[in-house]
Specification:
The protein is mainly α. The chain is built from five helices and no strands.
Length: 123
Amino acid sequence: MVTQVVQRSGYLTAFRAAALLNAAAVLFQAVTAGQMLGGAGAGMHGAGSGAVHVLGLVLLVTAVLLWRPGRGAGWPALVSLAALLLGFVQTMLGGSGQVLVHVPLGAALFGVSVWLVTWSWRP
């Protein structure tokens, strides 16, 4: 639940923006992974992982700010940390060619990203 104090602070707006950008980066990864099946997009998929890492860190920072000074819920910070770590695991698995684990974890990461976006925009 998002309280009125949290809504008036800029922390919720920052978290919303970070969550949207993070979900977009993860979606971009899914699109470029699909392009790799056709023989293209490997460079963009590799570069996109950097964006997922940077935006995952931004998401974590905004979630912590939403929680501590913003007096919001604490669980988005934990979920954001899990998403950041999952992104690193994704990169490691993808780089080592473990596609059987890489693909389902990518779907899970996208699900977590959409969950955070959905929660942040709930009334």
